[in-house]
Structure formats: structure tokens, C-alpha cells
Amino acid sequence: MKILLVDDEPAMLDVMADLLADLGHETVTVSNGMRALEALDREPLRVVITDWMMPTMDGLELVRRIRASGRQRYVYVIMLTALAGPEKYLEGMRAGADDFVSKPISIEELEVRLRVAERIIGLQENVRLLEGILSICMYCKKVRASEAAWTSIEHYVEQRSDASFSHDVCPACYESQVAPELRALEPPPE
Are 46 and 17 contacting, i.e. CB atoms less than 8 angstroms apart? Predict the structure, then answer.
């Protein structure tokens, strides 16, 4: 799994990246919340491990912005901090963090937390698939995008997934649709 690691301390980024590599994960590392948002806009990273206290944008604000952004795919966020106590835990969770881990963290604890993240992301993908039942017009094949709006199936799918379309004609439609039109354009035999 590819994980976005956010911390303003280069040494901590190195240690965490090494731990994650030992667990079989790839990392993208950035030094603050603003850079983390830029990284999330560049590529579809699904797990973020962020420090709480950072310059420019701290981890709490980062989590709030991730949640407010309305991203198509769920981003699982683990807050990593030296701040302890139930008040801080609740503050992080209320901001939208999925998990909260106090420093120093053990590799075993990190491994377990990431397994939970993978399960949650997998469940989110299953829900996305189940929600994928579409209301489609039986005549024009447009999809109901909302109560009042209909759109092409291509546009609907492209807006909600990583899929794109290339159009072609299947053999049956070629014979029933295209070939008769081509024959109609041919000059009559002499």
C-alpha cells in the first residue's frame, strides 16, 4: 500500500518511512499539511499518517480539509502525536481522524493500525461498488445523475471513477446499423 507520511521533522520522516518499508509499504513524504493536500491532489493516496504539530498547516487542519474536500475515494487518516490524553484523542477524532497513535510508536502497533486501515479501505470500495446501481433510460441510455438531471453514461462514470471510454462498434451492431447505412451510400449497380 502507498502511504502519505506527513511530519515536519526530517528524522521522523526517515524513521517512519523505513518502518513502513519494513512492513512492505511505499511512502510519499511531505513536511506539512499544505504539501500533503498537494500530494493528495496529485495522486490517489488512500492512507495518511500525519503528525499533529507542524508549521504552515498542522495535522488537525489537514484532517479537517481532507474531510471537507469531498474526495471521491475515502482517505484513512492516522494522527501520530506526542500529545496524549483523552481530550487530545477526542479533538483529533472530532476533526475527522480515523485513528490516533501516541509517539513513540512500535512497529507492531503500526502494523496492526495499517491492517485496520486496509480493511476499512477495502470495505469502502465494496460499498462504492454496491452503490453503483444506476438508473438508466431504456431508450437513450442516459443515467440519472440526480432527481432532475440525466447525463451520458460515459460522463457519469468518468466523473465518479478512474475509468475512461473509447467508442467502437460491436460486430452485431455493425451488421444491423452501420452496414445498411454504408450500402445505402453505394451507387446502384449498372
Answer: no
Pick the last residue of a domain from 90, 108, 130: 130
Cα 27 from chain centre: 16
Q: Would 31 be classed as within a structural domain?
A: yes
Please give the grid coordinates belonging to residue 128: 462504492
β-bridge pairing 47-51 and 76-81: parallel
Q: How many domains does the chain have?
A: 2
Is residue 154 one of the residues assigned to a domain?
yes
- Between CA 30 and CA 161 the distance in angstroms is 26
pLDDT means per 10 residues, the chain with 190 residues, are 95 93 95 95 94 91 93 90 80 90 86 94 79 77 83 82 82 88 83
Asked if omega into 104 is within 30° of 0 (cis), the reply is: yes
Q: Residue for cell digits 501520530?
A: 80
Q: Is the pTM of this model over 0.70?
A: no
Residue 103 exposure: Cα atoms within 13 Å on the Cβ side: 14
123 Cβ neighbours under 8 A, 6+ residues apart:
none
Element (H, E) at 94: helix 86-95
